[in-house]
Amino acid sequence: MWVVHYSIFYKHEQYQRWCSILEDIKAALELLELSADEQLWQEVQTNLTQLQQELETAEIRQLLSYPHDKKGAFLTITAEVDNADSQYWAYMLLQMYCRWGKSQNYQLHLVEISEENEAGIKYATLEITTRYAYGYLKSETGTHQLQQISPFDVINTLRTSLASVEVIPILGESVEWEIPEKDLEITWPRYRGNVNRLETWVNMVHIRTGISVFCDQERSLMQNKEKAFAILKSKLFAIALAQGVQLDKIQPRQIKPLSNKLIREYILHPYTKVKDLRTHVETPAAVEVLDGKIDLFIKAYLQQLNHTTFVTQEALDNFKSLL
Description:
The protein has 323 residues and is an alpha+beta fold.
């Protein structure tokens, strides 16, 4: 019950602060009508930008009503083809999500990565432990397509590259379900007297389904093992949820990739455009999107999932109309 009370108190405090900022803006504008003041005008713009950003965040937050939306997330990016262009595209997506996460003040941790020599990656997994990370980023699960002039081709060939993104919630202790040890095949480095080159990687395979997780970014072998187990548990849970089967009934024939559907196109040549194929939202600002500005796609996807109009949403719209 205290969680509910705290949530109401926090929302009330947040609303009061927004009202205070709005009153400051109005007062400053009245002063500016009497006398021009560059410093005061800059202050107004700063406050207005801050208020608009916070309202936008709150507006999106109201759409996060599903059971696991408040959880952190594991985000995995995989190059769909074993070539330099696809692997570089996977790296570009990794950078995009890292920039988005940093702009949200999210805690990002690289759990696993397979790097290639030509500035690309075969795959990588980010752990994002901040609340609501899954709710925001679940919109990104799917195949992302890039069209650009290949940076690896001397004759400037226009190429199409594909990379898949899979986002699953971090379960932690919230789901009382354990994977039987007999269902796991775990491999790790076998040391042969050479203690100067200690490796700490762990590869964990769920035998019945063939799903595997490789972790090598933690400091110790035990930490990598724990992280691999957490990712594997979350993956199996997400698959069971998507397929509508019980966790202990998942079979290889029932497994369908969560990210096999083309969801977004990024075009960098002969013009620039990013278009989401589910919501049909698009923007010519492809460079800005790749710099981490993906909130317009997240918001549109969440709105598509939520057809019901919330009372709190109405209040936010009314407040925004005052700006």
